[in-house]
Design goal:
The protein is an all-alpha fold. Helix content is 74%, strand content 0%. It is built from 17 helices and no strands.
Length: 429
Amino acid sequence: MGRGQRGALRGVPVQWQVSVAGMAAVGVTFGFARYGYGLFLPEFRRAFDLPVALVGLIASASYVGYIVALLSVGMLVTRLGPRPLVVIGGLSAAGGMGLVACARGPVTLTAGLVLAGTSPGWVWAPYSDAVDRMLAPHLRERAMGAIATGTAFAVTVAGPLALVAQGPRWRHAWLAFTAAALLATLYNARVLPGGARRARGAGRDAPTAGPLPARRPGLRRFARAAAIPLYATALSYGLVGAVYWAFAVEAVSEHAEAGSDVVAPLFWTLMGLSGTAGVLTGHAISRYGLRRVHRGIFIGLGGAAGLVAVAGLPGMALPGALLSALVYGPCFMAGSGLLAVWSYRVFPDRPTPGFTATVLFLGLGTVAGPALLGALAEHRGLPAAFAATALTAALTALIQPPRGERAARPSPGPSSGRRTANAATWSGS
């Protein structure tokens, strides 16, 4: 391994190092720092007497911070490499969650939640670059699919923790989240490469690094026709996911016999446990292709939302909720891996900026989903909102990734022949 990977651990295969590091970083930033807000919202409202308007404002502010971080990553990764950006994300998560744990008033709580909410924007996209630089082509898809499921493992831990950390003990849970974020950040700082990508052939220390681009690509580079289905899928995935994470627990709790304090953690835990199956996303894409996996994911997401929509029917409350969580978990986690792999195939020569553009559309869907369907729920009820969500997912299943799954052709240049060969190898992996 080269100097760009000076922190790698001896004796451990590099694909395991980068996969575990990525799962840890994604887990603490998404599963704890971002989604932990919804899981502990009842405790926050009781402890700080938060009005509904402020609850929505906090969520919106964290989403805006997430998008700002994404845009910053797209501009900085080619100069700094993935390591500094992932470290910034990890420290943002740890600092924000530490503020939450120590908060004595709404101002400190809000500051902590907003800071923590920016962390996924710093962390997720740079892993496209890290995987491209550290792993051979035939190992990348499985690694990217595994990294995206870090959220599932974190949610699996957060659910039971919320069940036992009720009342004033919720602060202990957030201190534990903070410690986990610090550990994940230290591990990532040891494993990931930093610095600008070096030209291929610059020495044996850079066997998988791509060449430095001759010039920065403009926005037109990311507005090519091949990216439109990818962006549409990302937008829908963000919308469907945000609505489910925001309203599913409330919808299920309305009809469950048990109290919501028990239903929410159990529902959360079941989603996380089933979502760990998303670690096989890369393998499924390699075996069945993007098109089939894409269709299966969005049919599953539509089915999960539909089950929430009918949870109010007699006898459907608890069975519908459990089945919905079981279906939603692996489909949602697999969706993250799908976007990562598909984005790399569309932008093989600019993996992190390309994935940043993809995740930006996901972020727009995340912002728009709760606002649009929350308004529908206010006038027509939560079942109508989830029926609309299910329809959105079903329509997205009709989008078709390219059958041949051919990566985008790099722009001409002195190394274009080698890059094209690498893209072909990636497509056939």
